[in-house]
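Marked as duplicate of an earlier ticket. Keeping the data here for the record.
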Amino acid sequence: MQREVSASFGVVLERRPSTSKWADWSWSVVDVIADAPATDGWTILSDEDGRRRYLSSPHVLQLHHKMVDAYDANIETGAPSVWVMLDEMLGAAEPAYRVRGITTDPYEAQGVLDSAEGIVDRLPMPKATVAWMAKFLASLPDAPAFRKRRRDRVEVEKQIFGKEPIFSPLGRKEEREE
């Protein structure tokens, strides 16, 4: 059993003219490519019709054995997804984004979304990645069944030498008689 497995991906970022009057460009992640060739930062893939696509790779997607519930939740939605998280880098050359990470854990992606920093885009998971993830999950042993703990029985202090116990879960004798 492997505790962690990882795969390498490339991230395709697209810049297109914005429909908003307050921004010139709209940025979004449009694809993840398994085993993409290594690049030095962002490399221009295409530039047509005012849309420019950039590729950045390699970025590692890691699966960890303790996150099985999150991966199962992702697959059970019926539309397995990959989330790409980008951080904005102020003052950097175009594109002014850095890839924070790639994840298949919906809870991690939600945490980054809640921080409201950068961009988090959800993309459909490639079929080969779904098969790779399912193989990893199948190799893990089943988690032990939940067992509710039960409280130990309380032992009542015994009366010794003709005196009532000072501390008793049942209360003092005077309190019980009332």
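See parent ticket for discussion. The two ends are 64 Å apart (CA to CA).
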